Task: structure prediction
Amino acid sequence: MTLVSAMIPTYRRPQLVGGAIEAVLAQTHRPLELIVINDGSGDETQQVLAGYETKARTAGVDYRYIETANGGLGAARTRALELANGEFLAFDDDDDPWFPRKVELQLAAMRANPDFGVSFTQYVHEGKPDAPKPKPSQMRQGWVFGGLCTGDTRAHVQTLMVARRVWEKVGGFAAYPNFMDTHFNLKASLEFQFLAVHEPLTTICTPPATMSRAGGTEGDVKRDHIKLGVLDDFEREFGAHPRFDKAAFAVQRARIFDEHIKHLLWLGQVKEAKAAWATSLEICGQQPLLLKLKGKLTKAKVAGLFGRKLKKP
Result:
């Protein structure tokens, strides 16, 4: 039997993490290992995790919960990888429950396709069970570095299962404040093929207290700068790799610049948005995504003359 390790990092979510744990304990596959990393929450999280020891034992799951000093999501995921014993490794977030057969079906797909090192599945958003994402057209598989950059392949970390050799080859998650999941996917895609499992097997929830939404639009602007810095670092480290696709990577950068410029416009920072647009064209070239922003910049400038800002869609 194939041991699978499920890993959940958590930080100050004692009211939510239990749902993710319950979903792992309800998996149909055995043997199964569950490692939860409490990333220095400093609240009752550790007590909540301790409360699942008996239930995990009864469910036949090898359950460990580890408390670490707060180091961020990337460091917590990597710590879980260091502790994991499984031949296959599956990641989840502390607020996103898996479907009961996720591990069983995804593992079967990977064992049937041993040339693929990473697999990803569809998912549903909470409250929208009949609208699976990504669309089939966004689930291209194989050597997907270019597709991950352009958006033709969308592999969310909560849906990933990777063979142990992937972790041994590319290492863990970088210690960035955010965007470390994209960084991991990109570096893994340089070395391993990705397998698409066309079935929703995870529910992604969006509670208000998430790192990716903290600080409103101002927080978005800060995260944009981090993302662009992560991409700069990535190109410096992997730009000479034979599977690095410079043209596709320019599209990846343009996608972040597009978000960044819109965030600035919604804040009414037209001058800063125009400067960022000029920079984006210089770095990324004449990307259609960026050229479309010219009209928004003009509208924002006119709106500013009347003391107004563009409305966020």
